[in-house]
């Protein structure tokens, strides 16, 4: 029974910082997925005219900390944070058993050993289990799941007591506060995934309220990268019937772009050289080629132009509509019984008794579903953390982002209700 699920079989980076070519698919990566139809409503925010509407007031966010670096993804930010903490070969990093593989990849790439700790059924860190696994540990990575902060005051005190550095994972929690302080301000470093909250194609950030980020130097990604990030964000909006006038105006140049890319792919006998990080394309892997690339100009502009107050208010409103509509239905329960003040969710997590039946039904209907932690890292099973395994199997997440339209939210709620009832039918 491997309590820590130490991954001794994972290899350290090769000289020069490049990971070795694996002989088998890396642990934690999913098998081939069924060919489900495209989601009929956007899983994440897409660009529209409404994206630029303002809302009154100030909504706290991770960017309220002292210093920030805008990068291309949350996993890149994790790698940069660990480097700033001096993590390298032979070090041990405490990571949650409830995780996405992309959270663990940077740890392994640096040659460190991920040591998996338990969480409680409500996703809070099990500090008793962490305390039992402190030997040789350098960093505690703690995740604010689905936009609901951990007890960050307690985590900070625990880390100070035991000489640990705290990496606050706000990939799900760009907005919000705990005990009057913005998320991201409790860790030695904190990271976020801005593309989960803004209508952009790539984006993450590294922040620190305690340390200078002057050593983190970033460079531009180049013209092709900049162009692709702007065009892809526009095309995501077009796909869901936003910005129709802009789409008509750009029809000819975008058609030419698609033609030229098709020609390039045929001539290269496969995919052309990557112009975007794999995180934007839906992969789990960590690509060190993007480690020192600055987030695109388009994404950085959106972080300035998009109203965080509007984002926060609508996310809370949409979350509450889902909570009210689905609470009390047979075969499911909201993971959280209530939405606390100053919490701004990433998604709406729903615990489902018959998840596979409901999931397949909804995916076939084109309902957007996120299954965070569906594939846990190799060796992480119920002997490591039964709560993590249970959550990974039973919790389905539905979008509540600010760019959902009322009719889209109504349609999704109706589909979820129908799938839940059908799953329990004799």
What would you note in describing this structure?
The chain is α/β, with parallel strands linked by helices. It has a domain at about 310-425: Aspartate Aminotransferase, domain 1 (Alpha-Beta Complex). It has helices at about 75-85, 100-110, 125-130, 150-160, 225-240, 245-250, 250-265, 295-305, 310-325, 355-365, 385-395, 405-425; strands at about 65-70, 90-95, 115, 135-145, 165-170, 175-180, 180, 190, 205-210, 330-335, 345-350, 395-400. The strands form three sheets. Strands 1-9-8-5-4-2-3 form a seven-stranded mixed sheet, with helices on both faces. A three-stranded antiparallel sheet has the order 10-11-12. It is globular and about 60 Å long. It starts with about 70 loop residues before the first strand and ends with a helix. Residues about 1-25 have low confidence and may be disordered.
Topology:
Layout lengths: L66 E5 L2 H11 L7 E5 L4 H9 L3 E5 L9 H6 L4 E7 L8 H11 L2 E6 L6 E2 L2 E2 L6 E4 L11 E5 L14 H17 L4 H6 L1 H17 L29 H9 L2 H19 L5 E3 L12 E6 L2 H10 L21 H9 E5 L6 H18 L3
Parallel strand pairs: 2-3, 2-4, 4-5, 5-8
Antiparallel strand pairs: 1-9, 6-7, 8-9, 10-11, 11-12
Contiguous uncertain segments of 5+ residues: 1-26
What percentage of residues falls in helices of 4 or more residues? 25-40%
- What is the beta-strand fraction? 5-15%
- Strand segment tally: 12
Rounded to the nearest angstrom, the radius of gyration is 21 Å
Order of helices and strands: EHEHEHEHEEEEEHHHHHEEHHEH
CATH architecture of the domain at 308-423: Alpha-Beta Complex
Total count of helical runs of at least 4 residues: 12
Q: What is the CATH topology of the domain at 308-423?
A: Aspartate Aminotransferase, domain 1
Full CATH superfamily name of the domain at 308-423:
Aspartate Aminotransferase, domain 1
> How far is the N terminus from the C terminus?
39 Å
Mind describing the biggest β-sheet? 7 strands, mixed
Give the overall shape, derived from the CA principal axes.
globular
- Specify the CATH class of the domain at 308-423: Alpha Beta
Q: What is the overall pLDDT average?
A: 88
Enumerate the strands of the largest sheet in spatial order, edge to edge or round the barrel: 1-9-8-5-4-2-3
Structural class: alpha/beta
